Amino acid sequence: MDNLIVKKLTNLEVDKIFEMEEKYIGKCDKKSIEKTIESETLSYYILFKENDVIGFFECSIISPEAELYDIVIDEQYRGLGYSKILMDYFFKLAKDCKVETIFLEVNSINSKAISLYKKYGFVEYSVRKNYYGDNDAILMKVDL
Hints:
The chain is built from four helices and seven strands, in the order βααβββαβαββ. The protein has two domains: 1-99, Gcn5-related N-acetyltransferase (GNAT) (Aminopeptidase), CATH 3.40.630; 102-144, no CATH class. It has helices spanning 14-24, 30-35, 82-96, 111-119, and strands at residues 4-8, 42-49, 52-62, 65-73, 101-107, 123-132, 135-143. A seven-stranded mixed beta sheet has the order 1-2-3-4-5-7-6, sandwiched between helices. A hairpin with a 2-residue loop joins β2 (42-49) and β3.
């Protein structure tokens, strides 16, 4: 996987991340995305292939804990291992920040994401019933 770079969000990528969040996640606030650029704890990290934004993750790190909020790969690049690149980067970042536990929440019908998280050692520790309308939110964590 040549020509791949992961870097922290800058003003140059805000519109693209806003567009991807709106398309794939549905919850979207451009001003909130912009605010993360100056935040010490909340960040977006962008995966570039050459000069194209092909994915991102959003996280919060307040050591000794971190939370992964979203991980998104653009549709045309899914199934090619790019989410693994983002997860590896996030885990390295978490370890560099001396994080001991990572938390996340995932929609119970998102089987691909759940499978990915389990590969990284995440385990379910709670469920929020009907959090996403008719679907539950599965709360997961992993100790580093």
